[in-house]
Structure formats: structure tokens, C-alpha cells
Amino acid sequence: NDTKTLKAAVLEWLVPRGQAVIPPLSRNIKSNRGFNHEVTGALLCPAGLDWLNAETKQSLKSGETAVRGDQWPIFLYSGYVYDSEDPWKGLLRSEILIFGFKHVFTSPSSVDKEPKATRSGNAYLHGMKSVTKGSLAYIAMQARMKSDPSSSSVFSRTDTVTDSENFYHSILDLLEDPDKSEEVCDLMMWWTRWVFPNSSSSQCSISKNSTLSKIRERRAALRER
Question: Structure pTM?
Fold first, then answer.
């Protein structure tokens, strides 16, 4: 189970390769992570809040600002950039999530390798040929838990501090939202191409006159009314 080694591995992904985390973080201690550290605090800061604002930072550190599970951290976004005008832009496409997914579902050694059209480690052994909505929500939750000392080390219904269950289900709800089906389809295709480039799921396209294309056309027309 490579989730056990994820806590230590996350430390290597917090900053660009070749750079050092300052102050240093221990692989075996989580107490100095979360909002207690400048780097992890910035990544865990809810999208829409400004970590560089002194009052915001202190409020998050002290716990005065309670972060609920549906207040997603900035590390879920590509480049750790949140666009308030387009909250979907870059969502669930961050480097930490890619590394975390490959670490758990393919193999730890695959993190540093480019995706190839070959069998994909742990996923192949379990018959996994594409990235699923549940697996994506799960890895996002795991990355959050490993970066935050206040969260439990396992997925628990009693985790009221970081609200992990709410976090997991809020992401899953978005991915299963019929109104977001086109965006989600593009997202899942993007993920599958990254992790399983040889999968038919990563190469499929929608036929011009297919039933699915007709359904999408009708949905688009209804939205414009």
C-alpha cells in the first residue's frame, strides 16, 4: 500500500525540483506541517483567501478560521493559481496531484518518469485502465491529509477537524454533476492520458452523429435559452 509512504514523498513535491523547503521539514514528523509552515500553509490555504495577508495567515494558523471540507486548497489548481472568474480553470490538474496519483496507483518510482504506453504498475495489477472520479477524489484527499497535521492518518468518519469525508464527497459531487459533464469528461481524459497513455479511454473521441453528441448538443441548446 503506497499510501503509507505518501506522507514522506509529499515533501519532495512541495517546491520545484532543485529547490529546498525552508525551513526544512522532517519526513517522519507532521506537527510542523499544515498552516504551521510557510510552504504547506500556502498550499493548503483555501482558494480565494490570500495566504500573504498577515491577518488571514494568523487566523488560519490559530484555527480561528475553520476550514471546512468544501473549501478546497489552492494546491488542487494547476500552478497553484486560482481564477475567481473561472473557478474551474486548472482545477484538479496540479503537479502534486499528478505525483500523488502516480505514487499510489502506478508506483513510487513512476513519479519521476514520463508516461509511456506500457503497463502501469499497481494499477495494471488491479485491472485499472483509466483514472476514475473516485480515485481522483481519493488522491486529492490523501494529499490534503498528508500535508495537514490536524487530519487523521486514515479516512475516518470521526475526522471533524479537517472534515476529510466532506472534502472527498464535495469533489466527487462536482465530478458527478451532470451540468459539468463536458468539463469533467475533458478532465478525466486529460488524467488518463497522463497516467495510462496506452488506454483506449485516453484515445477515444466522440463521433459526430453519435447519440452522445446529440445529447450534448441538446444540453447546450437548453442552456442558451
Answer: 0.78
**Cβ atoms 51, 45 nearer than 8 A:** yes
Q: Which of 67, 96, 66 is nearest to 80 (CA)?
A: 96
* Cis status of the peptide bond prior to 178, with omega within 30 of 0: no
| Whole-angstrom distance, CA of residue 144 vs CA of residue 101 | 13
What is the C-alpha separation between 35 and 146, in angstroms, rounded?
A: 13
Q: Which residues of 3-19 are buried (b: 16+ CB within 10 A; e: fewer)?
A: beebbebbbebbeeeee
Give the separation between CA 135 and CA 172, rounded to whole angstroms. 10
Instruction: Give, for all 225 residues of the chain, the pLDDT tens digit.
Output: 456 778 778 888 888 877 888 888 876 666 678 898 999 999 999 999 999 999 999 999 998 998 889 999 999 999 999 999 999 999 999 999 999 999 988 877 777 665 554 444 554 434 567 889 999 999 999 999 888 766 544 445 555 556 888 999 999 999 999 888 889 999 999 998 888 887 655 444 566 677 767 776 776 777 666
Q: Which three cell numbers stand for residue 12?
A: 519532495
Q: What is the DSSP letter of 212?
A: H
Say which residue the cell 513535491 belongs to.
Answer: 13
In this structure, what C-alpha cell is assigned to residue 8? 514522506
Q: What angle do CA 69, 73, 77 make, to 5 degrees?
A: 130
C-alpha grid cell for residue 194? 497522463
Question: Could you tell me which of 11, 74, 12 has the C-alpha nearest to residue 47?
Answer: 74
